[in-house]
Amino acid sequence: MKRVRKAIIPAAGLGTRFLPVTKAMPKEMLPIVDKPTIQYIVEEAVASGIEDIIIVTGKGKRAIEDHFDNAIELEQNLIEKEKYDLLERVQYATNLADIHYIRQKEPKGLGHAVWSARNFIGNEPFAVLLGDDIVQSETPCLRQLINQYNETFSSVIGVQHVPENETHRYGIIDPSSQKDRRYQVNNFVEKPKPGTAPSNLAIMGRYILTPEIFMFLDRQEKGAGGEIQLTDAIQKLNEIQRVFAYDFEGQRYDVGEKFGFVKTTIEFALQHEDLHDDMIVYLQSLVASLEKEKVML
Question: Which structural domains are found in the chain, ordered by start?
């Protein structure tokens, strides 16, 4: 059995939900306190045992490559000023993993982005991690899926429950049977119309896939939104070999839309020792101020 040792991180999206800031800055570089969102994703991959990562980029994404590259002038400046704690943090991002890059020349959808990395993957099982979801868990989310792959030798898709009124925003599974947190799946449905979802178990941006997925992505068939959808290819893969879903443990943070991004930033700031106390004081004063305004109204 081949190990899962490679991962694809698609990062070619236009980030339209965060315009105008994403006109000049990749959404993957938007900071959660003091780290860009994509670094949390890379850290999860590395903590899960991934050895090689390929980031699929698009036009205007050079900042991602710069972040994970050496910054000689900055590092020398920090050395001269004896700011060794900051130097260590800067170099940490550079030394995280062997990271490679490929350009998705046209924005044709997630399925096309994954397909763009097919030569890097070759004939191996591989991981896909999307940057819209950050997961905090005792066992890294991707590691949980790899453990399931090692038991089943099959593709495994990470899922979690979402409210019924949000199912139209996600790929949704139609489960047939369950063993602990693992599901066998009848169908994978991309963004079902409101009221038609077969369950409220939503695909949450973590995948372990066998290389046979490329047989279906090669066809370049368009799905929802006129794009090449990864979920559609997974559904076809499920027709020739088992594809499981796994309800992973952990707190998932949605950083792909504005309100979720703001909530994540606040919660992560509260986890920082140097910010926690000031954040508590600020939030308490903010709540008191809002309560006072309500009384005056």
Answer: 6-256 (3.90.550.10), 257-297 (no CATH)
